[in-house]
Amino acid sequence: MDTKRKDILNRPESTDDCISRLVKHADRAGRLALKSLFWMTLFLLAFQLLLRIGALRPFISPVYRMEGIPVDAYHVKDWKEKTKPSFLHHSS
User: Fold this and answer.
1) d(Cα 51, Cα 83) in Å, to the nearest integer?
2) CA separation, residue 52 to residues 39, 45, 62, 66, 73 (Å)
3) Which backbone phi and psi does 83 adopt, to 5 degrees?
């Protein structure tokens, strides 16, 4: 280990150095958060605009492809039988 590195490790840091490093890292993290928020918003708007094009909608949205297909679930009998749904039943 060279002497310069050893001197850096043994030297006590001042509070100003710690605060300036903290501010620098917080600034870098804030810029990264703003960039990611910008890109996520941009992608959201792009996909919403693409969904407005009727020819592209079946390729983007799997829900649109299922339009008109009835859902056949075996747990959906509660409203027909006028009973409480199974998640509301309490075992006592």
Assistant:
1) 39
2) 20, 11, 15, 17, 30
3) -115, 170
Express each pLDDT in 7-32 by its tens digit. 555 565 677 788 888 888 889 999 99
56 token code pair: 């592209």
What is the pTM assigned to this prediction?
0.50
CA distance 81 to 43: 45
Would you list the DSSP string of 28-82? HHHHHHHHHHHHHHHHHHHHHHHHTSTTTHHHH-HHHHTTTPPP--TTTTHHHHT
- The CB density around residue 60, as the number of other CB atoms within 10 Å, is 13
